[in-house]
Write a structure and sequence with these properties.
Length: about 325
């Protein structure tokens, strides 16, 4: 029977993935973990939660052994902008954390899901229809850790037979948990401002086009990839996946179709703008579509309607 550990379960992906996995595999089968943020009521009340720092290799090994874990969704990571502000800490959390997870997976026979990112690409990568296999010379510490992570996961698969799988997530948009310190965070913050009736000041320039995805698709991607028969996968780690590609100005226009009075101004943050400018504008995800049936359900218009409706309802309830 599948026994799952999720690291970083209180983060943007983890707070929704935990509940989705508990629905599929059973509440007691999914152990959520986080380093410092207390879990949401939904996570706390729907199954086990433990405090865990992924840089603590012994604590991780004990937890995996005591709960008979056979699958680890390793989500704990610093995002791009916060990593750029703290590069040494980013290396420690993103790389040492992953090394600990892979070692425990090797010794205790676990499968691993590793979320990579569009951050693995850099300014020398073709920015449009970015192929699955192409030049990868990231210029951010976040991108360097994610690319090294993809390579390390491939190494553990080939060298030790550890079943590691992962996708390159674009910017993720969710109404449940806010992201913390990413370059694509504007695409979430903008909805809070629009629904609060206040103007939004965007930290990226109006024409900065990036790949994006609504969280329900991101969750389905992780679950589907992990459920796919391994022999169908030629890449295993770092599958390009995307659902939509837009600029801040295009997102504001789409929101104005629902809230005509919404206004946005720009105050460009040079650090995050430089990061965004080094990333692809739109990825080619045909390999993921072909090998494991990846298919997004939400394009931009559907995402905007759903996001506004769900966020409005949770803001009215004071959540
Ligand atoms: C970030 O902006 O750092 C993340 C990502 C694209 O990996 N959302």
């Amino acid at each position: 029977m599948t026994r799952i550990l999720i690291t970083g379960a209180t983060g943007q992906i983890g707070s929704e993935l935990t509940l989705a996995l508990r629905d599929i595999y059973g509440q007691e089968q999914v152990v959520a973990s986080g380093r410092k943020h207390p879990p949401s009521t939904a996570i706390r009340e729907s199954g086990p939660f433990v405090y865990l720092d992924v840089t603590d290799s012994r604590g991780l090994a004990e937890l995996v052994a005591s709960h008979n874990i056979d699958t680890i969704y390793h989500l704990a990571s610093l995002l791009s902008a916060v990593a750029e502000a703290h590069p040494q800490r980013a290396w420690q959390v993103n790389m040492d954390g992953l090394t600990n997870v892979l070692e425990v997976a090797r010794k205790q026979g676990c499968r691993v899901f590793f979320p990579s990112s569009i951050g693995v690409f850099g300014p020398t990568t073709p920015p449009d229809h970015t192929p699955q296999d192409t030049i990868q010379q990231p210029t951010t510490i976040y991108g360097i850790t994610k690319l090294s992570g993809e390579l390390l996961c491939n190494y553990y698969y080939k060298r030790f037979g550890v079943d590691c799988r992962g996708v390159r997530y674009p910017g993720l948009i969710s109404h449940v948990t806010r992201p913390g310190g990413g370059t694509t965070d504007y695409a979430v913050e903008i909805f809070y401002a629009a629904l609060s009736g206040v103007p939004y000041t965007c930290f990226l320039g109006p024409d900065t086009r990036l790949d994006m995805m609504y969280m329900p698709d991101a969750i389905r991607a992780a679950v589907t990839l992990m459920e796919t028969e391994g022999s169908r996968l030629s890449h295993r780690n770092g599958y390009n996946i995307t659902a939509m590609s837009f600029s801040p100005e295009e997102l504001a226009t789409a929101i104005r179709k629902h809230i005509p009075t919404f206004s946005m101004r720009y105050e460009v943050d040079p650090v995050r703008q430089a990061i965004a400018d080094s990333w692809p504008r739109s990825m080619d995800d045909s390999v993921a579509r072909r090998e494991w049936g990846w298919q997004p359900h939400f394009a931009m218009a559907e995402m905007v309607s759903d996001m506004l409706a769900k966020l409005n309802s949770s803001m009215e309830k004071g959540e």
